[in-house]
Amino acid sequence: MITDDRSAQARADLAAGRAALGIELGSTRIKAVLVAPDGTPLASGSHDWENQFVERMWTYSLDAVWSGLQACVGALQADVERQYGAPLTELSGLGVSAMMHGYLAFDADGELLVPFRTWRNTTTGPAAAELSALFGHNIPLRWSVAHFYQAILDDEPHVPQVAMLTTLAGYVHWRLTGRSVLGVGDASGMFPVDPATRGYDARMLAQFDELVGQRRPGLHLAELLPDVLVAGQEAGRLTEEGAALLDPTGSLRAGAPLCPPEGDAGTGMVATNAVAPRTGNVSVGTSIFAMVVLEHPLERVHHELDVVTTPAGDLVAMVHCNNGASELGAWAEVFGRFAAALGHPTEPDAVFGALLGEALEGEADGGGLVAYNYLSGEPITGLDEGRPLVVRTPDSRLTLANFVRTQVYAAFGTLSLGMRVLAGEGVALDTLFAHGGMFRTAGVAQRLLAAAVGAPVAVARTASEGGPWGMAVLAAYLDAAGELDLPTFLSTRVFGSAEVDVVEPDPGDVAGYATFLERYTAGLAAERAATEAL
């Protein structure tokens, strides 16, 4: 048990119910972070989980959602007990976030009609193309409306029974509170949002209803979608049933207010203080995406760019890549097992750190190697499926340093293609904030990302906490929303004394990455051939 002054204050906050809790259901981990009113992390808990590829669809079962949430909250409770000697019973606020997009369809009795279709699925091409043309607004393959319209086009038998559509965060929030609502950021990945109203775009809703009128007379999409709220608005209270779903031991009491549920893109913006114009952030996990807050709407529609919003409802250009750090993580496991086979078992974080450190010793262009981290399809490069590849020519220099540098470059490859489209629109960016587990190893991924995007990259002390911490901060914002807007709350109360490390692009790295990207782009034909042959 910790007994210093900081812990004494934390115990006082816990006893008085002043702590806020954020929970995020990521692609490979469910994590909960408990924070003080100023956002200082107090405790955390996590649970690892994995998606399944069932009948050519990426999915998670709802049973896995709840067993994972209970394991995560149980681990958090254990951490609170270990540090502060008392259970967590009351909260000032609670928030749930999760991977965005996808398709969760329920009937009038609240029963799931088809297995959850996650953001990784790329089976919605015809629907996304038709809707994009109709709306004059890019509708990515993973957006909920694309999944729903594709189900209509395919005459799937469940469609007439659909009474509610939502995201994973919206589903969990609904079960915890009884309210079907979404934060505007998550909602903007279901259906386009009008920044003037902070709600679904009325013109496009009418267009959709007219489009499906002959196939599904009387269908009104607005009646199926969750209500939209912005950061700072109360989104319901934790019910007795909801408290029991999170914590079957009964320690956690009902009654806490919940903030609007958000997507992992929104929590990433909060976690990096990137919610004001000319700021942006990159989140690196199973997927990787960049968010840049816009000063004005984009002039053209680009299939590489989503237009979504911050949790406060301001327009954001999003470059979303389905494939992030998973392939690099798989190689780290291989090298970790190799170390164990030699009689030197090593903690995974140490293996990962050693490999990233080695990447800095590699040649600036990766020594002529090229790699693709495509475990799933990648819409930006036009691939419906993925096959991880490492390719080299006979005169490439295959060293550990070049290999690892190439794997890191590959994680940023598709992202940099999308960012070049954004630069072509004249979008200005002062600093790009990065967060995610890859940045726990100081200086490496940050430096190579700066080369990939051609902009300064900043990493704050909270970078490794990522989205769950950002969600907890949004929950803490409930108590301050009446006094401060979200950017001011973050800048003054949460990040006012934050330690931030900024790395400028190194000219040699920039030139080397440009050479790598030329090979990467040319070699996409080999990646496409691999998906056809294997």
From TrEMBL:
Residues 281-477 form the Carbohydrate kinase FGGY C-terminal domain. SUPFAM superfamilies: Actin-like ATPase domain. Transmembrane segments: none annotated. It comes from Actinotalea lenta. Keywords: Carbohydrate metabolism, Kinase, Transferase, Xylose metabolism. Signal peptide: none annotated. Residues 20-245 form the Carbohydrate kinase FGGY N-terminal domain. Belongs to the FGGY kinase family. This is FGGY-family carbohydrate kinase. InterPro entries: ATPase_NBD (IPR043129), FGGY_C (IPR018485), FGGY_Carb_Kinase (IPR050406), FGGY_N (IPR018484). One of its GO terms (molecular function) is kinase activity.
